[in-house]
Amino acid sequence: MRSMTKWLAGIGAGVAAMLAALPLALADTAAAEAMGAAAAAGPDDTKKFIALAAGFCVCVAAFAGALGQGRTASAALDGIARNPQASDKIFVPMLLGLAFIETLVIFSFLISILMYGKI
Prior knowledge:
Helix content: over 70%
Distance between the termini: 41 Å
CATH architecture: Up-down Bundle
Number of strands: 0
Shape: elongated
């Protein structure tokens, strides 16, 4: 049940990221339509795709990070449950692994911010 909750949290974070990028894409489309058909075929199309790519980048990173953290914690807790005396040797590497997973999610968030800055 917990893995399903983590999975749903990852999906929810991804959907939230996509919804956050949606107004920018819609506003860009409305501005392109107001300027005419000639402006819509130019670099404004790339701006829409950059906004969608930034949202998709965060979506995939949040989903994969939630999955990775759930699997890491599950494996560590299974190991601790089987051998409680090894909890000190399992707990610290688990925390390091969780920190590395979260770092990758933060890096993808920074990349999406840089992509968003190109608009």
